[in-house]
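Practice problem 4.
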């Protein structure tokens, strides 16, 4: 017979206190998740439940300490303690693995210790308007990526994994018909572009990004089987973008930048389109909901504020941005992912 009494019905102020503690302690769960990612716990559980002693031995860590980490994550629904000190995958933990359609690369990047350092300096950004991440690493984020290949690889893998989850929803929601040449500006390793090209066999593509990113794109382009319809080009999108496209696409690029720099990028696309009035500008971005509606984009906006110095935007803010760059926002197409297709046409 248990000697632990059940709690009585909590008063409203207790629920409010619980909410505050949940939010205040969020970094604890994030740190525990990073440990699970670094130790490949989800991969170690693919074949079925395992005792924590076995997990710890295979990972080379201390059993009791690993148990405390996994117990905390299991209390949140990530992993399940199926019997004392034995853990199994949950639907959430299944997604922590790495590969197409999975989230492991993205989660490992989001929980990277560098993020903890930057978020600890959030007040600095609020006081100065400058990215806290820049203060932490001593240089702009994208310069840091270029100089630190390991972190750059983590970033690019996370973006590719995110694209793999987003693109099926985008292709389902948006019709790319009528585009002859699609230029992906800052397209990373090319998952967005290759996904569209594979769905539209008559289309040709141009993948553009900075040199150290383009250098890693070859294997994905070859594996996608679109090498004969896609060329790569090194680009500085603050100066110019590749000419010759009749549509230009960017996924999660404009949110990296403040309004003035975003307008510079979009204006360069408008220049590349020349006299065309039928060309398309396609942004794959979150569109922030108004008011206090729950919206993950509002948290992602803090990431943009602290790391590259950009922002997430509402539909009206996108429309204003487009107008400054010579485009009219023609429609916003929601998808089953967290991103929408934001379409613009030349004014």
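Answer key:
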């Amino acid at each position: 017979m248990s000697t632990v009494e059940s709690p009585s019905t909590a008063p409203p102020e207790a629920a409010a206190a619980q909410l505050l503690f949940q939010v205040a302690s969020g970094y604890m769960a994030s740190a525990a998740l990073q440990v699970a990612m670094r130790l490949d716990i989800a991969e170690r559980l693919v074949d079925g439940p395992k005792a924590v002693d076995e997990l710890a031995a295979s990972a080379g860590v201390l059993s009791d300490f690993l148990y405390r980490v996994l117990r905390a994550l299991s209390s949140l629904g990530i992993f399940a303690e199926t019997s004392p000190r034995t853990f199994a995958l949950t639907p959430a933990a299944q997604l922590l693995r790495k590969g197409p359609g999975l989230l492991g690369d993205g989660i490992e990047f989001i929980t990277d210790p560098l993020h903890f350092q930057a978020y600890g300096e959030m007040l600095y950004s609020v006081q100065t308007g400058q990215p806290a991440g820049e203060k932490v690493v001593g240089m702009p984020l994208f310069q840091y990526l270029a100089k630190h290949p390991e972190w750059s690889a983590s970033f690019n893998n996370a973006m590719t994994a995110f694209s793999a989850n987003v693109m099926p929803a985008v292709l389902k929601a948006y019709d790319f018909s009528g585009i002859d040449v699609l230029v992906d500006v800052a397209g990373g390793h090319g998952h967005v572009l290759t996904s569209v090209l594979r769905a539209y066999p008559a289309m040709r593509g141009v993948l553009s990004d900075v040199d150290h990113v383009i250098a890693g794109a070859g294997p994905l382009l070859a594996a996608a089987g679109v090498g004969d319809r896609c060329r790569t080009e090194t680009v500085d999108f603050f100066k110019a973008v590749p000419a010759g496209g009749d549509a230009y696409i960017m996924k999660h690029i404009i949110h990296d930048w403040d309004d003035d720099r975003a307008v510079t990028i979009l204006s360069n696309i408008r220049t590349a389109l020349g006299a065309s009035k039928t060309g398309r500008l396609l942004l794959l971005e979150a569109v922030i909901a108004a008011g206090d509606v729950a919206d993950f984009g509002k948290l992602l906006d803090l990431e943009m504020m602290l790391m590259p110095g950009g922002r997430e935007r509402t539909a009206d803010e996108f429309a204003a941005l487009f107008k400054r760059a010579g485009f009219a926002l023609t429609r916003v197409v929601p998808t089953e992912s967290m991103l929408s297709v934001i379409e613009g046409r030349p004014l």
